Amino acid sequence: MTTVTIADLDPAQRPRERMLRLGADALSDVELVALLLGSGRRGSSALDTARDLLVAHGGLAGLAHADSAALLGAPGVGPAKATRVVAALALARRFGTSTDRRETVRTPADVARIAGPLLRGPADGRVVAVAGDRASRLLGAVVVPGAVAHGRPFAVREVLAETLRRGGVTLALAHRHDEHEPLPAPADRDATAAVADAAAHCGVRLLDHLVLAGDAWTSVAEAGAARAG
C-alpha cells in the first residue's frame, strides 16, 4: 500500500499553503494539528499522525487537556512535537480568559462562559477559580488540578491562594460532574460554604459555584436559594 505524504498532495491542498491562501479558520482541526506537528512518521504523514492524535483523545476538546507525557505515547510524536502541540493549546486557553479583554464576572452565565472551555474533557477533579476585581472585571481564571473529587476534601487553600495571587477580591468556582445532569450534591454545597467562609476571612467574596455536566450547568447559589424558598 502506497503512503500519501503531504509532499504528494497538490500544492494548493497542502495545509501550509491553504492557510496562507485562505487563513487559519478555513483549515480543519486535523490540518491545524498537522501544522503544529510539522512532520509525520515512517509510513504516515503529519496529517495521518494528527488524525490519530485527535481520535485517540476524543477530538480537540480532549487533546486540549492532554499533557506532554500523554502525547509522547503516540507513534511518531517526540518531545519537540508534543511540547509544540501542548504549548499552542495552552495559549489558546489563556487567550480565552485573557485579562486584556476585560470581561466581567457578574452572573452565573459569565462564570460558565469563562470556566467552561477550561473544563472540557473528563471530570477529573479540576476546579476553575475565576478571580475578579472590585468592579467585577476578570483578573484571571486558573485551573486548580485535583481540587475536588469524590471522597477528597475541597482544596480551599489552593483555590484562595490562586485568587489572591491575582489580586482578586471576588471569586467564582466551577467544576465538572460525570453525571448527565449538573445537579449540585450535598458535598458541593458544603464545599461552597467552606470556601465562602474562608474567602471572607481573606477579604474575598465568593460570587458563585457552578456545577457543569456536558454543555449544561447549575449555580449552587441559585439552587440553594430555590431549596430555601
Automatic annotation (TrEMBL):
Signal peptide: none annotated. GO terms for biological process: proteolysis. One of its GO terms (molecular function) is metal ion binding. Residues 104-226 form the MPN domain. Keywords: Hydrolase, Metal-binding, Metalloprotease, Protease, Zinc. It comes from the Bacteria. The keyword Protease applies. The keyword Calcium does not apply. InterPro entries: MPN, RadC_JAB, RuvA_2-like, UPF0758, UPF0758_N. Belongs to the UPF0758 family. This is DNA repair protein RadC. It comes from Cellulomonas hominis. The lineage of its organism: Bacteria, Bacillati, Actinomycetota, Actinomycetes, Micrococcales.
